[in-house]
Write a structure and sequence with these properties.
- The protein is mainly α.
- The chain has a domain at 2-138.
- 73% of the residues lie in helices and 0% in strands.
- The protein has 7 helices and no strands.
- The chain has helices spanning 2-8, 14-17, 20-42, 48-139, 162-187, 194-201, 215-220.
- The chain is rod-shaped and about 215 Å long.
- Residues 9-14 and 222-226 have low confidence and may be disordered.
């Protein structure tokens, strides 16, 4: 942009006007102009010295015009070079931008491929593990043991056996009760008949009273009391 601005000024641009050769020629032209003015005041137009000074002034002005054009052309060339360099830089920038966009697309595709690779690796590891297990199972010695049925947990505990204990308790309780009753009967027998009374007392039975027709018999359930 700076080179374009300098080239836009043409021969009146700052770079052209501040060139060393142009400034030197301007100084010489100013001095020669002053000299020609002095000679014009003192000498006539056909005087050789005045004509020589005017010729030198014209030559300096032509040289100034040439140098100004050269400097302006140099500025234009520099501006063109800068524009060309700018175009190249823009082309390189666009190329790099396209490359970055392409890399971004490749990166996204790479991420998808990486996920596919991870999934395939996980599946491969699973298959390899199962293959190792099957290989170990195939190398293990075979036996004639066959599973017939699957054991089921029992509904009731195996110990203690409550029904058996109850039955055993009933049997033992009955036996103990019968033994106790028998022992009490042997230790202290009860009188239930006349013969039993004679045996227990060691004397004969003289008589007996029947309550079969009385009120007491109905209360005693028809039993005879001696």
């Amino acid at each position: 942009a700076d080179a374009g601005a300098r080239a836009g000024g043409g021969s009146t641009g700052l770079d052209v006007q501040t060139a060393g050769v142009v400034q030197g020629l301007r100084a010489q032209i100013s001095a020669k102009t002053a000299e020609v003015a002095q000679l014009s005041a003192d000498l006539g137009p056909n005087h050789p010295q005045r004509q020589a000074a005017e010729a030198e002034l014209s030559a300096l002005r032509r040289r100034l015009a040439v140098e100004t054009g050269t400097s302006a052309n140099a500025v234009r060339v520099a501006s063109g070079t800068a524009s060309s360099k700018e175009s190249q830089m823009r082309a390189l920038l666009n190329q790099q931008r396209g490359k970055m966009l392409s890399l971004a697309g490749d990166r996204a595709e790479l991420d998808v491929l990486q996920r596919d690779v991870d999934s395939a690796r996980a599946a491969y590891d699973t298959v390899t593990q199962r293959l190792g297990t099957m290989r170990l199972q195939s190398e293990a010695p075979s036996t004639n043991v066959v599973q017939l049925d699957v054991a089921q947990p029992p509904m009731f505990p195996s110990s203690p056996n409550v029904p058996m204990r109850l039955a055993l308790g009933l049997v033992l309780g009955g036996m103990l009760a019968a033994g106790t009753a028998l022992a009490l009967e042997l230790w202290r027998p009860r009188v239930r008949t006349s013969s039993g009374a004679a045996t227990a007392m060691g004397v004969p039975v003289l008589g007996s009273v029947s309550f079969s027709q009385s009120r007491v018999a109905s209360l005693l359930g028809g039993r005879q009391t001696s």
